[in-house]
Each structure stands twice: as C-alpha cells, then as structure tokens.
Amino acid sequence: MADSTTIPRMLTTDDRFSTLRAALDSTGLDSLLATGGPFTLFAPPNGAFASASAGAAEDVLTGDRDRLRALLSRHVVGGRVAVGGRPGPRSVVPMSGDTLSLRPAPDGVRIDGIPILDANIQAGNGRIHVVDAVLRAPGSDAP
User: Fold this and answer.
1) What CATH code would you report for 7-131?
2) On the chain, which terminus has fewer CB atoms closer than 10 Å, C or N?
3) Residue 139 class from Cβ within 10 Å (0-12 exposed, 13-18 middle, 19+ buried)?
C-alpha cells in the first residue's frame, strides 16, 4: 500500500539519509521529487557518501553544485521501477540520460553492480530503493 507522503518527506523520517537529503536540497532535486511523479530514487545512505572515493560526506556536499546535481541525477528515474519479481537483467534510464543495469545476483538485486539493500519502499509519488554505494558516472572513480 503506497504511503501518501512524497519521497523527500519519507527521507526525512529516516536518519540514514541526512546526507542525501542535504545533497538533494542543495541541488534543488528535492523540489522535483516532491512533485507528483512518479519517481524511483536509488537512495545511498550516509555511509555510502562517507566511503565514496572523494572522501568524507562534507567533501561531496561542499563541492560544485552542478557536479553534485549530475551525480544525484543518476539516482533518479522517472516512473516506478520495481525490483525483484522479474527474472533476468534489465536497463533503466535515470535523469542523467545514461543507462543503469538492474541484474539479479546471488545476494539479491544489484544496480550497476551495487547491491540494493532495501527495495520497493513505497511513497505516494514513487519508490525508494536503498543502495549500498553512490552510483558514479560511467568510467568515473569520483562521485
């Protein structure tokens, strides 16, 4: 049953996402995710930002906003993307315009090789999937 709250509102109820909330807010993507949607958000928790190769979460948030928005755009997909229940690999296209690969794995489902820790969290305007790391641009070592 879908919750009547938006994706950003749901993120505020979970302390695991304080860094993501701040990043979305600083780039204006929180406003987009507060609209009707539907959207799917691949949501890295605080630890994913802290362990990103660029260093601490503060480095991610104090950097170039355009670069941060581009990075976060890889985490937002228009429409409701369900995880599981559908065999085989498939592709999704996030706001960034590149392609992400959803693939089954022995330990669950992965997006571009990154484990999805918690899938199909329903919001009133979409879905949230908790991912184990920040989704980097193809060929990039930095977030």
Assistant:
1) 2.30.180.10
2) N
3) exposed
Q: Note down pLDDT in tens along the chain; length 143 residues.
A: 344 689 999 999 999 999 999 989 988 999 999 988 899 999 999 988 877 655 444 546 666 788 888 889 999 999 999 988 767 789 999 999 999 999 988 888 999 999 999 999 999 899 999 999 998 866 554 44
Q: Where are the beta strands (DSSP E) in 39-125?
A: 39-43, 76-78, 90-92, 100-105, 108-111, 114-123
Residue-wise DSSP of 6-49: -HHHHHHT-GGGHHHHHHHHHHTHHHHHTSS--EEEEE--HHHH
Burial 48-73 (b: 16+ CB within 10 A, else e): bbeebeeeebeebbeeeeeebbebbb
Half-sphere exposure of 68 (CA within 13 A, CB side): 23
User: CA–CA separation, 130 vs 12, rounded Å?
Assistant: 14
**Tokens linked to 77:** 């997909």
